[in-house]
Amino acid sequence: MTDNTEYRYHDSVAGSMSPQPAGSGKPSSGVWKYVLTALISALFTFVITAALALVLFISFGSMDKSGELNLRLHDQDEATMQAVDKLQRVYSYIYNDYYRELSDAEILEAMTAGLATSLDSPYTMYLTKEQNELIEESFSGEYSGIGAIVAMNTDGSIEITDLIENGPGIESGLQIGDIFMSVNGEDVTALPDVSTLAAMVRGPADSSVEIEIFRPSESKRLTFNPVRRNIDNASVRSRMLNDNIGYISVSEFSKGVSEHFKEAVDQLQADGAQSIVFDLRNNSGGLADEVTDMLDYLLPELTLATLEGRMQGQKFSNSWESKAGMAVPEDMKFAVVVNEFSASASELFSGCLQDYDRAVLVGQQTFGKGSGTLTYPLSDGSAVTITNFLYYLPGGESIEGVGLVPDIEVQLPEEARVKSIAQLTEDEDTQLTAAIDYLESN
């Protein structure tokens, strides 16, 4: 399963990234929910035509002066020839009739992007150099910006879905549910994706950015001027909830998060924790090796997930295994709090503990991303991210497009949904209260 090609391997494209369902009209916008954890804070997994797919495995012919793209294909059956004819017609129309003259390089760039982003997996996509650099930043866990996490809705609006605790955004008065209208006076209501917004919002530390939002809860526009600063995303936060129950919040599975997680587990046990609540709300995924390392700390030697996919043109089967690294008592009880923005690595973590009867799930049905991706950097700094496997939980089920159903379904009160998780009071956080009640009574 390996070759000499450099690639990034993770269970969820950064992003991430709220993820959008397939068929939402914005097939790849979902990935940016995870990315925006980094993108705006840096300031969040896994065809054009049938003929075009063959281009990857054949050589190009020339582009003649008539604007025709000549391909040399191995297969020449009727369906292939019809697809080639259609592709050549579309190419010719664009070459000759587009409102401005396009170079061959520009057309090929568009074809490259189209091939990657037009498949039926919303997590397969082409990334520009700028987008790829922002995703690389997202996995570092440290950002410079306002500390907002956003998602693109199906109508194209960009909404804040979470705010990093003690970040500039939350301190300036921004709220969950706020919809971006303009940045520094420039309209942002019709942007192609959230990465464009991120590039407008990010900037040097100690500089301010003017953000105009529409707040649905008050039905009015408001303007804020948060001052950007360097932010350690602090992906893991922990504390004791009472004498016996510990609490660990994991906001994303970025690089190094597993070591912080292990330290938190050890400290809570030293403080007397006999059970732990894991809070994965709004966590849309990250690096696969981080989450498997964390599960290894909680579970005995067993299979965490099985994988089925393709690599180098061949089908493959694999598995993620927990080693003999369990560092908690076998009778320690867990509760995992999740919501509709818990995706990918969060679902793997939650689903494993649920399938092995080690944890009860509390909250709302999760997003449903049970696939993994490979990201191949390209020579100009851009990259292509390809969905190359589905993973199956220990019980054998795939959650792709389905998600996990909580054992205890609880929604937050409507008035609490404009707040970040960190801002919720004890009375408002009905999901955490339900998790605590379960652990105290079992």
SSE layout:
Elements (H helix, E strand, L loop, with lengths): L7 E3 L21 H8 L10 H5 L5 E4 L5 E3 L6 H20 L6 H14 L7 E3 L1 H10 L3 E4 L2 E5 L5 E6 L4 H5 L6 E5 L2 E2 L6 H8 L9 E5 L4 E5 L4 E4 L3 E5 L4 E6 L6 H14 L4 E5 L8 H11 L3 E10 L2 E9 L10 E6 L6 H11 L3 E5 L7 E7 L5 E10 L15 E2 L20 H12 L1
Parallel strand pairs: 14-15, 15-18, 18-19, 19-22
Antiparallel strand pairs: 1-20, 2-3, 4-21, 5-12, 6-7, 8-9, 8-10, 10-11, 13-14, 16-17, 16-21, 20-21
Task: Explain this structure.
This protein has 442 residues and is of the alpha+beta class. Among the domains are: 50-117, no CATH class; 234-441, 2-enoyl-CoA Hydratase, Chain A, domain 1. The chain is 27% helix and 26% strand. The chain is built from eleven helices and 22 strands. It has helices spanning 32-39, 50-54, 78-97, 104-117, 129-138, 168-172, 194-201, 257-270, 288-298, 345-355, 430-441; strands spanning 8-10, 60-63, 69-71, 125-127, 142-145, 148-152, 158-163, 179-183, 186-187, 211-215, 220-224, 229-232, 236-240, 245-250, 275-279, 302-311, 314-322, 333-338, 359-363, 371-377, 383-392, 408-409. Strands 1, 4, 16, 17, 20 and 21 form a six-stranded antiparallel β-sheet that branches. α8 runs parallel beside α9 and α9 (288-298) runs parallel beside α10. The radius of gyration is 23 Å and the shape is globular.
